[in-house]
Amino acid sequence: MLSQIKLYSSSLQKLYYVLPVLHRNIVKVLLAFCLLLLLVPFIAKTNDRMLVIPVLDDPLYIASKEQPFENLNLPDYEWVVDRGDTLGNIFSKFNLSSTLSKIQEADKNVLTLDVINKGDKYLFWMSGNDDDFDGKDIVLTKMEQVLGVEHQVAFVRNGEGYEYKETLLEGVWRQQTIIGEIKKNSSFSRSAVAQGLPVNDVAVIGRLLKSKIDFARSTVPGDKFQIVLLTQYVGDVATGNTKIEGVRFFNRKHVYSAFSYKGNFFDSKGEGLERAFSRYPIKGKYRISSNFNPRRRHPITKLIRPHNGTDFAVPTGTSIYAPGDGVVRRVVRHKYAGLYIELEHSYKYRSRFLHLSKSLVRKGQRVKRGQKIALSGNTGASTGAHLHYEFHVNKKPINAMGNKVPVAIGVDRKSMFAYKKKVSGLIELMESKNITDIKTAGSNSG
Ligand SMILES: [Zn+2]
After folding, report:
1. 162 CA to middle of ligand 1, Å?
2. Biggest alpha carbon distance in the chain?
3. What is the 311 CA–ligand 1 centroid distance (Å)?
4. Cα-to-centroid distance, 358 and ligand 1 (Å)
5. How far is the CA of 309 from the centre of ligand 1 (A)?
6. 110-132 tens-digit pLDDT
7. Would you call 79 exposed, middle or buried from its count of C-beta atoms within 10 A (0-12, 13-18, 19+)?
8. Is a pLDDT exceeding 60 seen at residue 386?
9. How many angstroms does the Cα of residue 37 sit away from the middle of ligand 1?
10. What is the pLDDT, as a whole number, of residue 45?
């Protein structure tokens, strides 16, 4: 075998050397060219990601008895967002650039497409024929944005446009108790994280107890903490969402505590730890030109276009005030929503202000209730100067003029008994854990 190869290669060599110099050079160039051609797919791969056909063993797509495999409506493509991806370049990869604005028009009422995070998944269902590979005859029938195992937004084609459907699974919240003490040369933050508390929740505790204790200055080694934390699961998958049920911090002779009740935080006496919200984000009386209406339809296209907010007929330039303390999460210019701001007040509460003429805040900034944050306007797809104001509870828009907006400060009298009962249950849980359990506290749950 080996001798045969040697024979072949030596005869090839002989053949090569009988060729004239010009022909030898042509052979060299051709060889180099063939090598380059072989490398092209690798070069292209590093610059340009390939489209991915969904993996069929993904738990999302496993056929069940209720939904046998042949009836599963599998997406044609999926796209996992990488650093630097924009919605525009994702759509152009699928030859769907002309469809993007129709999707954005439907997104105006949910605004989930403005924030694009690494790892988010987009699923595409297409129909039509693409024999010309130009994508001209391809129609996007559905696009689904997978924001987490618990949160998906689908944009479904209806006539010439799209309607959105948002799915938020509540899943189950598993309870966990975290206890510990501030170690020498450490801080509350580092000690709590070392015991398994997510960094976000450290910040939440800092804000809740801010008016009572300064964690950066007034804590000393030996101070103890007890925290009851809930972690959200869908099936066996953690969604990454957590919330604090209760916290107690023991500093010298004082105990500082915060307990969650119906989504708001109170101290041991039932006094509110967060400031209540103002009903209106504007001052003075203005006419409401359009009410909250989750079932509204577009008058011409008849597509479902939920009105997830309240419209106030205010002239352009009217001052807009933060309805509660919070952090500015978005300042975005949107084709349809215009210039808009989103505030996050707590895990539970968010507010949005659309069609603004000017923002007076920037992303990441902390704002106080009553702080002037913007000037109203008529930007985006708006038929006249007005403020569109949204209030969200647990990621769902609610009627900001209704009674789900907490405008009261403490636990009301008729809920006090239920509140105290919950607090004593939480304290019992905290006390059931010994300081000797600290080392394993982070991994315990239940
Ligand atoms: Zn509106």
Report:
1. 19
2. 105
3. 5
4. 17
5. 5
6. 899 988 888 889 999 988 766 66
7. buried
8. yes
9. 56
10. 43
Q: Give the global pTM.
A: 0.72
Buried b (16+ CB within 10 A) or exposed e, 274-298: bebbbebbbeeebeeeeebeeeeee
Q: Residue 282: pLDDT above 90?
A: yes
Question: Tokens in use for 157?
Answer: 């084609």
Can you give the length of the chain in residues?
Answer: 446
Place of tokens 């990601």: 49
The structural domains of the chain, ordered by start, are 2-47 (no CATH), 59-168 (3.10.450.350), 172-275+411-441 (3.10.450.350), 288-398 (2.70.70.10)
The Cα 244–Cα 220 span in angstroms is 23
Which residues have beta carbons under 5 A from ligand 1 (an ion)? 309, 311, 388
If one compares 38 and 201, the residue with the highest pLDDT of the two is 201
pLDDT, tens digit, for every residue of 66-90? 555 555 678 988 999 999 999 999 9
Could you tell me the pLDDT band of residue 405, with boundaries at 50, 70 and 90?
confident
Sign of the Cα pseudo-torsion (138, 108, 330, 318, in order): positive
Alpha carbon of 290 to ligand 1 centroid (Å):
6
* Tokens, residue 398: 């609610």
What is the 443 CA–ligand 1 centroid distance (Å)?
46
What does residue 130 show for φ and ψ, rounded to 5 degrees?
-125, 45
Confidence of residue 218 (pLDDT cuts 50, 70, 90): confident
Task: Report residue 444's pLDDT band, with 50, 70 and 90 as the boundaries.
Answer: very low
